[in-house]
Amino acid sequence: MTIKTVGVAGSGTMGAGIAIVAARAGYKTIVYDTRADALERARKQTAGFFAKSVERNKLTQEQVDQIMGGLSSTTKIADMAACDIVIEAVFENLKVKHDLLAQLNKVCPPHTLFATNTSTLSITEIAAGSGRDERFVGMHFCLPAQLMKLVEMSPGIRTSDESFAAAWAFCEAMGQTPVRTKDNPGFILNYFLVPFNNDAIRLVEAGVAAPADIDRAIKAGLGYPLGPLELLDLVGLDTHLLVAEALYASTHDPRAAPPALVKRMIAAGHLGRKTGQGFFKYAGNAMFGG
Amino acid sequence: MQYAILDTGFSRSFPAEHALLTGAAKDLKSARVVIVIGEHAGRHAKSLKKWKDKAAVLIELGTESLGEYTGEGRAEEGSNVLGFARFRLGNAEPTKLVELVRQPRTGDAAFAAAKEVIEGAGLQVAVCGDFAGRIIDRLVRPYYNAALRRLDEGLATADDLDTTLKLGLGYPEGPIALLERTGLAHHFDVTQALYEATGEQPYAPARRARVAKSRMATVKIA
């Protein structure tokens, strides 16, 4: 099948990023959201992103004009009827996704592929409420989608080989790097990262070492670009808690369960960079101490 | 600060020439800091009292606790003796990272002297308590075990597992390639020791590490 028009449902951080990837690759791209203000915010962020691309000589103004010309937004779900593939990037809640997909299933033609950007829910369970579970795939982009090449792709139990192959080819055509993973909680990235980060928090809880020493050890000893605790500060402890709770609920792996310290830090307002303090203190973008 | 080295045999931390070795003084008696390296470092535990006036005494550790050499009581142990290990995965070259182990009452002056000597040799220090696995092994071995188990269970191919963790998190090497390059048998040794020390399931050696260890023994017999 040929994909010419891409739909993105949800204009939050992930949805806006995915739309940039698709539009930049030359696809006509339609972003759908029920909230006009969210679409406007995403449009401004997208324009800002492409302005920087021009500043950094990654794209010319002409190219950006062409990309932005192919990128539109809508609050009317009926407009998604033009899409050959729709990637949903709405709130991580099965019912919310099922409600959206059921509506999309009514307006989209039979050939339209559905994809989900879920990071923690089951592809098969989401697909079951889509009305087209044979034409449904998992496409988990990494944050920030517009910069990260990796896409974790998973078929659900009923996904057809043809649908998966078409979605895979589309992913590569967007210039992304797909990897195939089973429909498994957390796929690859979150399945390994969330327990690893929890273990780092448990080291702090147990008094094995101070956050700065843990991060220094991991960076100098293993060559990781970020220590686990500065990464958690960047992600935000509140976001980490949501992902860890979701992963634990589906795996019951004790390492996935958020350590008690996470909730205490959230209660204290120590969410990470966004509140100026997490495992480290921040002023602007500068890191202090630790 | 003047330091001397007591070499007790093969050292995992310093298997080859290094600034820390070449910068050492010859005379143990006059040195302010004594560093005991090598696989038999622990045998010199009885000398620790003899060195109580040194600024610091450093003992190279494997998977054991520093307390095995210094003795412990009421979580009030601590003296001028510290443990250390330069982090190294299996057969890979040792890294620049030295985990420096201090006890609850380790003197600040002893810690500062130890840190000065290690950093003076171009190494980086991460300080930690006297816990099994210290920082890195305690943190990464469950992750490596999980990667090996999930590979067995067909979560993804080895290449896709490695690619995901490299592209997604910026790791220089994926866990499967890393463990196969540096030695799965060594991963077995470390995880077996940690599993015995902690009794925690995530440290139980993964099947692939056990196979590698077993094959190594078979090859030796053959």
User: Largest sheet of chain B, described in full?
Assistant: 6 strands, mixed
The major pleated sheet of chain A works out as: 8 strands, mixed
Question: Which residues of chain B sit in consecutive blocks of at least 5 with pLDDT less than 50?
Answer: none
CATH topology of the largest domain in chain B: Rossmann fold
The neighbouring-strand order within the major sheet of chain A is 3-2-1-4-5-6-7-8
Beta content of chain A comes to 15-25%
Q: Count the E strands of chain B.
A: 6
The first-level CATH class of the largest domain in chain A is given as: Alpha Beta
Helix content of chain A: 40-55%
Reading off the top of the CATH hierarchy, the class of the largest domain in chain B is best stated as: Alpha Beta
Structure overview:
The complex is a heterodimer of chains A (290) and B (222). Chain A has helices spanning 13-24, 36-55, 61-69, 94-107, 123-127, 161-173, 189-206, 211-222, 228-235, 237-251, 260-267; strands at 5-9, 28-32, 71-74, 85-88, 113-116, 136-141, 150-155, 177-180, 281-283, 286-288. Chain A is of the alpha/beta class. In chain A, the strands form 2 sheets. Chain A has an 8-stranded mixed beta sheet with strand order 3-2-1-4-5-6-7-8. In chain A, α6 (161-173) links the parallel β7 (150-155) and β8 (177-180). In chain A, α1 packs across α2 (36-55). The radius of gyration of chain A is 20 Å and the shape is globular. In chain B, α2 links the parallel β3 and β4. Chain B is of the alpha/beta class and 222 residues long. Chain A binds chain B through residues 142, 148-150, 152, 177, 179-182, 184, 187-189, 191-193, 195-196, 199-200, 203, 206-210, 213-214, 216-218, 220-226, 228, 255, and chain B through 87, 95-97, 99, 124-129, 131, 134-136, 138-140, 142-143, 146-147, 150, 154-157, 160-161, 163-165, 167-173, 175, 202.
